[in-house]
Amino acid sequence: MSSETAVNEATGAAVPAGAATGGSQPVGAARRRGPFREGERVQLTDERGRMNTITLESGGAFHTHRGFLNHDDIIGKVDGSVVVNNVGQQYQTLRPLLSDFVLSMPRGAAVVYPKDAGQIVTMADIFPGARVVEAGVGSGALSISLLRAVGDNGYLHSFERREEFADIARGNVETIFGGPHPAWQVSLGDFQEEVVRSEAPGSVDRVVLDMLAPWECLDAVATVLAPGGVWINYVATVTQLSRTAEAIRADGRFTEPDAWESLVRGWHLEGLAVRPDHRMVAHTGFLLVTRRLADGVTGISVKRRPSKTDFNEEDVNAWTPGAVGERQVSDKKLRRAARDAIAGTNVKDDPEVTN
């Protein structure tokens, strides 16, 4: 029985977890509440601030050069407890946040960082129940954020060209939600070809693209996106950003595109030593957003001084994966990451909600 279900004591029938308290729980919510259970991931922080993430196993142990900590000493404890290992070393125990999980999960491709995923969810106005399509699934980091935003009754259709990446994404999504998400569908193939076959014209609320050449998908996006719908692109380089923006302007079926990037700088807080951290998360990618106009309407062009917007063959060659610094991932590494992601889904049922 799934950890997201309970048993009705009167009838013996399986019911959604949380139904006994007056409402159904969203998928994965039960895994964020209650005491620690076997199979869960737990974040351990020692007295020096060093952090490790472990998966709890009955009879297991976490070993360091300063002793060992039995997993059984954590299982059954309340989230936020402090436990002590065999030599008196203290550890703070917490469930990893989504941002922690994304940065430590198995991956085959670079992930969309939490700072960008948060911007995408907000600036693209991803709402509960929305119909969303995305391309460039990668390791599933952005898919997890989108699924949380659309909810169980929403719809997310993800397109990925490489089966290995799709397998890694499925494993990571099922690990964090405790199983397949009811709103998620993954398809293999090129986005611009597959999306028009699977989605009716004007039926999609939001389009999210994380790919090398999003301008190639312009017609497909215009076909499936509803009037007023949002199209947001995540690109790594200035040249990609420029070409996508110019293609959108030239097409005429979209509003004037907006672009930005976010930089995150932490602060050091210790007594009177309050200052910016020496290191920061700077450029990870650009975000470019536009909206679909009604059919038959031509967008209003923003008046600006003339500038060179033509592209030659040399410019096009600059957008190859190698030229923009995209690291090629070996098939062996992809297979290993897929195995690690799938292994993370082997979480035992919650003993509190199963009989």
How would you characterize the overall build of this protein?
This is tRNA (Adenine57-N1/adenine58-N1)-methyltransferase. With 355 residues, this protein is an alpha/beta fold. The protein folds into two domains: 12-94, Roll (Vcp-like ATPase, Chain A, domain 2); 100-332, Vaccinia Virus protein VP39 (Rossmann fold). Helix content is 25%, strand content 23%. It has helices at residues 98-104, 114-123, 141-150, 163-177, 191-198, 218-224, 238-251, 313-317, 331-343, and strands at 5-7, 14-16, 41-45, 51-55, 61-64, 67-70, 82-84, 90-94, 131-135, 155-160, 184-188, 204-209, 225-235, 258-260, 267-270, 273-276, 286-291. Mean pLDDT is 86; it is low at 1-22 and 349-355.
Rg (CA only): 23 Å
Q: Strand order within the widest sheet?
A: 11-10-9-12-13-17-14
Briefly, what CATH class of the largest domain? Alpha Beta
Structural class: alpha/beta
Count of domains: 2
Mean pLDDT rating: 86
Biggest beta sheet summary = 7 strands, mixed
Strand count: 17
Helix share, percent: 25-40%
What is the rounded distance between the termini?
9 Å
CATH names the topology of the largest domain as Rossmann fold
